[in-house]
Amino acid sequence: MNQNIDTTALPRSKIEELKNMGYHYCSDVEANLEDLRSVLNNDWEELAKVPKVENALEIFQKEVLSGCILTYNKELDKILQNVICPQTITEFTGFSGSGKSQVCFQLCISVQLPKWCGGFGGQALYISTNKNFNSSRLRELAKNFLRDYNSLKVRTQKTEYNLTEESIMQNIHYIDIISGEDLLSCILLLDNYLEGKNIRLIVIDSITQPLKTMEVSARFGLLNRFFQQLRILSNQFDLAIVLTNDLTVRFNEKDAIITPSFGDSFYHMVNSRILFSKNYSVFHAKLLKSLNNTQIEADFYL
Amino acid sequence: MDTDSSCKSRIESGPQLFRRLNSSSHSIDGINPALFPNGGPYPNKVIEITGELNVEKTDLLVDFIVKSILPTKFSKEWKSSGVILVNTEFQINIFRIIKVIEAHLLENNVKESKRHLIEEALKSLIIINCYSLEDTELAFYSLEKLLFNNGNINLIIVDNIAANYWIAKLNKNTLSYFQHALKMFDLIFNIIKHLNATLVFVRHENKDSKKLLRNIDHQIKVECISEDKFNFQMTNFDDNSSFNVLARMENNILKFS
Amino acid sequence: MVFKLINDMVSSFQLQMDRLTSDIHSLLNKDLVKELHKRNIYTVIDLIKAIQVDRKVVEKISKLHLREIVDLNKFLLKKYGPCAENAFEHYQRIILQSAILQTGIGCLDKLLDGGLFTGYIYEICGLPSSGKTFLCLSLARHILTTTKDQVYYIDTKHDFSATAFRHMLADSKDQAAEILSRLLVVRVHSRPEFLNTLFSIKKILRVKQTSKLLIIDSLPALYFLNGNHTENNSFLNYTVNILNYLVNECNLVILVTNLITLWSDGDIKKVDVMKERISCGGYWANVPNARIKLKRKHETCIVNLTKAVKAIPPNCECELKFTSQGFV
């Protein structure tokens, strides 16, 4: 049983050309690469590539070394253990004002922490679609954070890795998007943007907003394409991705259920989901889905 | 030797002659009196089993297989006949066949050594596993030789005739499911049409599709009434008669009423 | 022209069925192959078709005798066609080669009539976050700790966390590293990568059977990637073909996770009950030999067997408990 060339990433026209010449299987093409150079150029190695097989031990060692991003808010971090890791997609959901954007700001700062401190020593990219981005609030958070960081530095007597308010603000890149198509184009062109910079976290706040104006039928296709590209990027640059998603209402018989937008197929595609809510001045976060398959909740203050 | 089209008389090929001389009383006539009350299915006849995609048709196929391969001496409905199964769906597995054979032996109070009977029965069944469209086509081409080498084969079952439709469609976008089924059916029909075997094949059908393949003699439409109850709508094209037969799955045996 | 009959061994392996080259058969010398190419006869199956349809033309082109052509046809069919096996021999071969992989979960093994049987495709479906990946990892853990086999894990959306899996091995601390090293994880992001991986696994297992379990988590992530109905289904078609080949000819158990989504038809005026729909379409729905449906209930998970390899037992449900080491 042979692998048909239909299954490769060759464009349809090339496949038809090859089939007209009698080449139906990958093994045939490989046996005659020289003769087919005019048709294939040198693309074949790339197309026939098998992704790397790693064993779980190697992956475990990599995971231990890279760790996860935390907020350094003791209560909240109880549920963030091993959640926001490189190459995963985490969803923050909840009503407006439940603290999602604020936690995102904090993550943009924490990602910059040097490795010896548990951070990634990297930069952040904040893609905003809903005008929640507040640079003064961010600055405030950075100030508070620096206080703790500098006292830690003094205690551990490390003199390198200086962080300043300015450097923290500068290491957070910002893109403003309005429509769904813009969002997708942005993600598709992001590999050029990311080249050379050490961005380790991408926050998209929120993804519900730009898709609201799109037709329902187009949304599904766009979301899938979106996820595919995000995964490719996160794999290529070893990034963690956080998305914020608004809540919506679904009807089941006579009940109206409040759930995050985009339904089950979206829920399937994200790796973790955290539900935020606010009760007076207390914030509450519940981990609904994670790679560790635990469901925990915590109350925290911002 | 193919039939010379300019000559009116029918020229038989070697295999055809051999099969004609050898297929004495071993047809599967009488295998299912509920579905074929007037006798049959006879050699060279074609039976299409159709129904919606999600309806279980394999129970009926397994029933045909098991009753064909079991020895005639224990039951009128058993035919001591060989069967070829062209398997593209991989839903019929050997354990299931054995379970159904055991259930039938039990039902008919057969006292002889079960193991020996099962062994002999299984030896009459030939399974061709097809993993691609090419496999299926080549399987059809090899049927002639198989029938020649195994004179007792009277039943050929294809599950299902239009397998790998989506791959075929990828290469020719205008191909419809029906056209693909037609192409594959014509291919197998032309190969085995005079070889004195009965052909049973499965073709999934959409609810509204009323298209019919030519050259079929009987069409059985399968409907699932409940978890273990089926309705078989039998249509005979020689006399345009049509009737319904109910059946129930009981202890691994399909019981027709 | 003198020819020798090449010793055609019936092998149950599918050999290359492809382009005609002069080293397939002594009759097919380079000139004949060139002549055939001129008439668009490029592959083995083209030639067989040509012989079946119009032998005279082939006689003319090749200048071979009828008998030689018949023999060539016979040879090609035997070597390149699918293997026709007698059911009894098939049964004996299966008994020798196949295995039952116990799941390590008592009630699940009972539900599955012993465990997971090699030679079959099992689908694990459920709503998002119902425990599908967790069940796959529990099963992998049991196989890895009770045998020396490898387990393949194809991860399409980065749901595999080695840290989480390591936690499940808390009992076997000293062997943890060795156990981890036998779980082979491949992360795929596109359909060609996925199919290339499956074919390379086929090549590896053809040489030596180092693994009896292949887990694909999850199929919808690849299916959803494209909206074109024909492309989606033809992708599934190719996938199904290679999966069927792997289970039957390479003696594997293949577990595929699939998503159930809740849909409500109609708009607000016609409020309806939400219906469950299994993803990947109608074509895929008939493919798995067994279907295990998961439903999460806080600390436990209800397992429902909706399609079985042999027969659905009268009691087709059981309840699994979440523990730190997997399902129990």
TrEMBL record, chain A:
Residues 65-247 form the RecA family profile domain. One of its GO terms (biological process) is meiotic DNA recombinase assembly. One of its GO terms (cellular component) is Rad51C-XRCC3 complex. It is found in: Nucleus. One of its GO terms (molecular function) is ATP binding. The keyword Lipid biosynthesis does not apply. The keyword DNA repair applies. PROSITE patterns: RECA_2. Keywords: ATP-binding, DNA damage, DNA repair, Nucleotide-binding, Nucleus. Its main location: nucleus. InterPro entries: DNA_recomb/repair_RecA-like (IPR016467), HR_Repair_Mediator (IPR052093), P-loop_NTPase (IPR027417), Rad51_C (IPR013632), RecA_ATP-bd (IPR020588). It comes from the Eukaryota. This is DNA repair protein RAD51 homolog 3. It comes from Callosobruchus maculatus (Southern cowpea weevil). The lineage of its organism: Eukaryota, Metazoa, Ecdysozoa, Arthropoda, Hexapoda.
UniProtKB/TrEMBL annotation, chain B:
GO terms for cellular component: centrosome; Rad51B-Rad51C-Rad51D-XRCC2 complex; replication fork. GO terms for biological process: DNA strand invasion; double-strand break repair via homologous recombination. It comes from the Eukaryota. GO terms for molecular function: four-way junction DNA binding. Gene3D superfamilies: P-loop containing nucleotide triphosphate hydrolases. PANTHER family: DNA REPAIR PROTEIN XRCC2. This is Uncharacterized protein. It comes from Callosobruchus maculatus. The lineage of its organism: Eukaryota, Metazoa, Ecdysozoa, Arthropoda, Hexapoda.
TrEMBL record, chain C:
Its main location: nucleus. Residues 97-260 form the RecA family profile domain. InterPro entries: HRR_RAD51_Paralog, P-loop_NTPase, Rad51_C, Rad51D_C, RecA_ATP-bd. It comes from the Eukaryota. The keyword Zinc does not apply. GO terms for molecular function: ATP binding; ATP-dependent DNA damage sensor activity; four-way junction DNA binding; single-stranded DNA binding. The lineage of its organism: Eukaryota, Metazoa, Ecdysozoa, Arthropoda, Hexapoda. Keywords: ATP-binding, DNA damage, DNA recombination, DNA repair, DNA-binding, Nucleotide-binding, Nucleus. The keyword Nucleotide-binding applies. It is found in: Nucleus. This is RecA family profile 1 domain-containing protein. GO terms for cellular component: microtubule organizing center; Rad51B-Rad51C-Rad51D-XRCC2 complex; replication fork.
